[in-house]
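Chapter summary example.
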Amino acid sequence: MKIASITLYGLRLPLIRPFIVAYETYADMPTILVKMETDEGIAGYGEATPDQHVTGETWEGTFSLLLHQLAPAVIGENPFQIERIHEKMATTVYAAPSAKAAIDIACYDVMGKAAGQPVYNLLGGRYHDKLSVPYVVSILEPAVMAEEALQAVKAGYRSIKIKVGTDPHVDVERIRAVRSAIGKSVPLRVDANQGWRNRAVAMWVLEQVKGCDIDWIEQPVIADDLTALAEIRRQSIVPVMVDEGVHGDREMRETIVRQAADKLNIKLMKCGGLYPALKLVAQAEMAGIECQVGSMVESAVATAAGAHLAVAKKTIRSNELVGPLMFSRDVAAFPYESLHICLSEAPGLGLQVEEQALAALTRMTETVKG
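The structure predicted for these 370 residues follows.
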């Protein structure tokens, strides 16, 4: 089997409401869908959702990189030879993880379809029967966030994640207001997205919200400062999750050596796809670090890939696979059932990409052939 062609679709996915985090406000979500076709007539889909603040990639640049470098590099390769494909991509271009993730995910979709197996069976088999999804509240005024979180709990969500990372004083109000609104029994997770910048500010905030029973604090300081993250972990009783601070093996090793985190947020767009993500899971498990599969707010395609990883691995205890819930239109129906992700036994990613929706959402398209 060989990769015969790769078609790229540059999409703008419409959000139901703006998504606001510490470093950006998104009115819609730019992403790139990859359709990989083999000489045996099997088609697989992958996705790149770049974030210039996290991976250093832009939407336009990633589309161009896939078109001119990565797609031509893998044409003619066997999609089952995933290590060889990653080596070829690595020698073609340094970093660019979301672009590589698109190729990687499409390969796994093809492999699953060729083998007649869901992708999770290629990753170790199903461990979790289903995945519970959290409700994610973006940055707004404290009272507005509290009300939104309360309504989510009333709708049946069993955990709340809030975005913070602007003014530390207002962030304290946000955390207190949300905890007061949802009560003590609902898990509350807090993500600063690097917004508190340094250890001193992060420790001040955590001191102010001691009574709020935070499940964990995610990436309170800038991504490159694993030393500060380690100091926060040693000085606070709140578990620390590293996100932007770990992309691949190098940062993972440093995190383990420095004992900088209790938890790891794995994102396929940061590490380059499912194959490198498996390595991160193995390293984390060896070090006693629990994992979460996160998201760059991706379409059903990359969200499904993350779900297959999360379902397959015992050490992945949580997820933030909520992208499809945030869009008013997506490229495929996603298997949410009663606020859980329930993957079927359908081969590959288990999705049916809707051609009409894909055409309506596409802003640019190109095809690379052998």
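To summarize the output: DSSP finds 14 helices and 15 strands in the chain.
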